[in-house]
Amino acid sequence: MNFNEWLKNEESIISRDYFEALLDTLPPYGKRKVKSYYIEKYRYYIKTHPQEKYEQIELNINERAYPLIK
Q1: Which superkingdom (predicted)?
Q2: Does the pLDDT of residue 49 top 60, yes or no?
Q3: Into how many domains does the chain fold?
Q4: Distance (Å, rounded) from C-alpha 21 to C-alpha 32?
């Protein structure tokens, strides 16, 4: 389970578009608070799921190295 899947389960965020639409309804100060909240959530995820972090990084590296292979 990567961070996006974990976040969908924890916070009921359906998609990135949903998150962006939510941010668009907020004033600038609210946007900063929400973004800092999710930065803290990511730090928590890394502490509680260290193995998944490395798998996700490895996957991102492989996707960059071999973009045409899927």
Answers
A1: Bacteria
A2: yes
A3: 1
A4: 15
DSSP 11: H
Beta carbons within 8 Å of 10's beta carbon, 6+ residues apart: 41
Q: What is the DSSP string of 14-50?
A: --HHHHHHHHHTS-HHHHHHHHHHHHHHHHHHHHH-H
Q: Is residue 55 in a domain? A: yes
Whether the Cβ atoms of residue 49 and residue 1 lie closer than 8 Å to each other: yes
Q: Kindly state whether residue 32 falls inside one of the protein's structural domains.
A: yes
Instruction: Note the pLDDT tens digit of each residue in 6-39.
Output: 777 787 777 778 878 888 898 988 888 888 888 8
